[in-house]
Amino acid sequence: MSAAAGNPLCGTYAGRMDGSGESDLMLSEQLCFALYSASRAVVGCYRPLLEEIGLTYSQYLVMLVLWEHDTVDFGRLCGDLYLDSGSLSPVVKRLEANGLLTRHRRAADERTVEVRCTTQGRALRDEAVRVQRQVEEATGLSRDELVRMRDDLNALGARMRGDAAVAR
Fold it and tell me: Where would a tag sit more exposed on the chain, N or C end, judged by fewer CB atoms within 10 A?
């Protein structure tokens, strides 16, 4: 049985969130659309700011992981970003071509590819901090509100993935 089975937030939901029992499939009442719309708006806010520092949003996500860990194996990078290797490989290759990271096979286990931030990639971090602050300001939310929303969304994602260890 999937984590989504019987979950009113997935698939067809034949009841109103107010408990009235009325069938309500209005777009404006859908959690999925609210999340989708908000996500598009946030990424749209990032896009021009990231272009100024030479990154796409997908590249920015990869760099966030590298700024946090400096070196990670490719499998962990995929896991941290919830992306498959086919989706992530072109992003990593492009960042490597731009000199922001390197890839190499681990000597002890050649099946494992390690991804490492370069000096040039680390130098970009300070510019990314400025971008992050501008996006935070654009939300109009306080730091506490942003933290609470992020934590709630992370918990929702964990529940929807069936990751009980992370979900609160």
Answer: N
Asked, for residue 157, whether it belongs to a domain, the answer is: no
Q: How many domains does the chain have?
A: 1
* Residue position matching structure tokens 């929807």: 160
Report the C-alpha dihedral over residues 5, 85, 131, 55, rounded to 10 degrees.
-140
87-146: pLDDT as tens digits: 999 999 999 999 999 999 988 888 889 999 999 999 999 999 999 999 999 999 999 999
Cα-based distances in Å from 160 to 6, 77, 156:
12, 20, 6
| CB atoms inside a 10 Å sphere around CB 84 | 9
Given a cut of 90, whether residue 6 has pLDDT beyond it is: no
Domain span holding position 63: 56-127
Q: What is the pLDDT of residue 2?
A: 44
Cβ atoms of 133 and 143 closer than 8 Å: no
State the Cα–Cα distance between residues 111 and 114, nearest whole angstrom: 10
Q: Which of 74, 106, 104, 70 is nearest to 88 (CA)?
A: 74
Please state the rounded mean pLDDT for residues 54-74.
97
